[in-house]
Design brief:
11 strands; 5-stranded antiparallel beta sheet; 2 domains; Protein-ribulosamine 3-kinase; alpha+beta; Aminoglycoside 3'-phosphotransferase, Chain: A, domain 2; two-stranded antiparallel ribbon
Length: 283
Amino acid sequence: MDRKTTLEHIKKNSALLNAFLPAERIKSATDEYDGRYRIEIEKSDGTTEGYSLKISSGPDDDDRLDVEYDSLKQISEQISDVAPGFVPKPFARGNLNEPAPGLRFFVYGDYGEQKNKPTFKEYFWKSLNAIHSIQDENGLFGYPRPTYFRGDAQFVEQNSRWEDFFRQSMLYVLDRCQRTLSALQAPHECLENMNTLRELSSTNSIFSTLIGTPESEGKIKPSLVHGNLDTSTVFLNTEEDPDSVSYTIVSPAVFYGHCECKVYPSSLDGYVDSTTEALCPNT
């Protein structure tokens, strides 16, 4: 089903209206990106409210959508006291009856449009640190169910040691890359380089050198990480008043890992080295 047709059906979808009772109607719906729509509902008293909506791309995408809903719910509930609004709270999910019966959706708080790439000020790092302060109660890295990085299942098999988890996740990525290169009939040199990387990643020594003392001293704790953090998943709500800058982060692909895992300085404009200590309270 194309996105234009989906937009037309969103406005008259009874399953969505049931999520907003006593809403009278869905007044408008606009197509954003990555399966996200912005909708405006009209309530029985004539007032309107804005929300965000995500719809799965098909049955194979339903699990990813449910995991994203549960991830948003977990984070928003656990950091609500220290960083309210940093993660939008989801509050309704279900199956659409149109345009395709059974297609999954969830509704969550509206967080506006990404008009400009954000600059990352102190409040952002403190709020991110609140997420990283959530630790797995069993002391395990990974996650108890599959999570998805940009639509693809990522390695989350649980392990009590960060070094082992990191090594296995690297092998998982390299194996997928190798299969893709082979399918594309990549030049022999590319495949040889990939084989070399895989052989290096198969040994513990390289990771022991990279990770070093913190692992051996037990200082690396399994902290909850967003898993998909870059400028496309961070929204700057306002910067009119430097003292009240607020951000919203979306589309999580969570798992428990090193608290600086998957924080990409190169993809976060405005990143300042002096802020890194605030990211990781456990090392």
